[in-house]
Records
---
Amino acid sequence: MWRRSGKGSDCTFSYWRGFYKFVVGWGLQDTGYRLQVSGYKGKKNTFYMKSYRELDIYKESKQLAIEVHKMTLSLPKLEMYEEGSQIRRSSKAIAALIVEGYGRRRYKMDYIKYLVYAQAECDETIVHLEFLFETNSLQSEKIFQSLKSAYNVLSRKINKYIQWVEENWNEFPDQSTGNL
């Protein structure tokens, strides 16, 4: 379940904090929603993420955006350019905001701000899905239910990650907690 990332990193210690298990050199895992932040052990047991691509919330938001994009191609012409365009933008904005926030991760409040925006876009995407289904533009209830539940889970994961960042993310490395 834990995956090793980074060459030559050693797992030197682990401890539990709330719902999270932090293992230096291996990552962080939320036991409730399988949130995983991977990284490697740097100098003085400081934890670093190598890339935003290692975040499960990024991977899932990108995959869902691709699914939404493909789904909108089968919408009626009127909806493809109206509501379809809007849902494509909101679904793609989730991944883009996670990436932009990661680019500003040095400043904790900026990082949190963009993660909150990503969660808001997630909720907006759910509303657009509901509009499409309730107006019979999206006729497959199976697709609607699977996308809606996937976006609800993603929203909860983003919320959990925001909480973790608020509690554990430091603007300067802290040797006692091992956070950046």
---
Amino acid sequence: MARRNWSWFWLILALCPLMLLLRSHLPAAAPADAVQPIADSLKLVALTFDDGPKTRTTPRLLDGLDQRGVKATFFLIGKQVEEAPELVTRMAQSGHQLGIHTYDHVALTGLNQADFDAQVARTRQTLAALLGYDDFLLRPPYGTVDDGVKRNAGSPIILWSVDPEDWHERSVQREVAHIVSKVTDGDIILMHDIFPESVDAALQVIDQLHQAGYTFVTVEELFAARGVTLEPGQVYRNCPPEE
């Protein structure tokens, strides 16, 4: 009986190198933060939010996005990142994409290098210190861009193609109707997560566009799905499918 047990031991020992060899040829797991491929045949739309985070409104939006399985893109104000870092961490951990919307929400056009860096580089450093990475898109406040902004951006510049102007007239019904009637495949929607009405409107928009067959993606996912490489200093407003 002892001899038989030793036979099994030597057999298992002989098989160990073969098992290690087979394991080494298995495909490696994708990094947790890798952009997951999205089928280009889908109707895609990117929902983006500016001016946050705000403790009174952003958590409810994040709850609604989680419940619907939707990933959005947030362009953040550096000063407010410092005031609510836990919300920014939650955004990143939930798979949302994060970008820069300056430190104090000032127009970037016409700024000298020092003033530009005080708005953009400072916010980039704040986010990088909090999150441990430095891959952030830029959205200039008011959508104003000049040659200096393009030259100093250090990242792709993301504007938008659908704007309900939710900051102007805070009407949930009007905002929803505007977006749903205007949106097309590849659009980037601009909203603000600092207004309660905008949160309500955004969640209704998601529900209605889901019913219309749209898939919500981050800005990065949208362009990746369409085979477009985002370049630093270049301005992007949408990414429709090729005809």
---
Amino acid sequence: MKKFKLLSLGGLTIAGIHFFNKYISEKALVQNNSFTDFEYKWSYGSIRYSKQGNGAPVLLIHDLTAGSSSYEWKFIASSLEKKHTVYTLDLLGCGNSDKPVFTYTNFLFVQLLKDFVADIINDSCDIVTSGTSCEIALMYALTPNCSAKKIITVNPYFASSEELLISKKNKYCNYFYQLPVLGTFAANLKNSREAFEQLFYNNYYHDDYAISSDCIDAYYSAYHTNGTSRGLFSSILNHYTHTDTSGALNRLTIPLSVIAGAYEPDIDTAINTYKTADTFTGADFIPDTRHLPHLEKPDEFVKVLMPLLS
């Protein structure tokens, strides 16, 4: 009898957590800020993307975080379309794209980028990428028949030696977050609206007064749209998405440049590392911005970006 009561209580608890997860996801979908009107049916899932304008192709790749999406380039794409054919996409596990619950790796995203450029753009293009997605662009540049003409990185991130190691603890943690109910619940707690709000105030923007509730809601909604991004969140947290790009810099054959937020921590270290590439062309700083200068000060960002494009 006692065992039956414990089983019943456990079942009710799991059911309660399941409905709580569902409630959180429905509540999070306050708005859909994606402008990804097209679908690319990739081998690992549907990829949502946008295409606008006419001219030399430019591909904009958002940062690789659980709340990121093509919303990151919302203000930039409309400015570039006057002279360029502009593509943006929601990476697998992000925004409106499919979000399979498995382990995401740098190699997976490099393959996505290679296939997307070949199948959708079908032409050489400039790539503008931000944050940890800069690792993806650098590794793509080393693939056979790479179609990138230039790589422009925004606040590039270099993984530490610790982040390149996957421990036994990381493996167990990654397995836990992939559990359907408890893993979803734990990931939802880590990716609450309050958590995204703190990211904007502590990491993303320099000017607190420039932060809007729409931006926070866009990231929170992107995490919950079309399922949650818990698989990607866990893969990032447990070091599966990083790779050592130091060797890639030495082998790079296309122009590489940096646009940085003036208040981005450790950006000088990243730039000094980029300078080891023979094809490095320089770095430009956007004053009074931090990790997302293209969202915080889009007009100033476009003025710097335009002369760098083909």
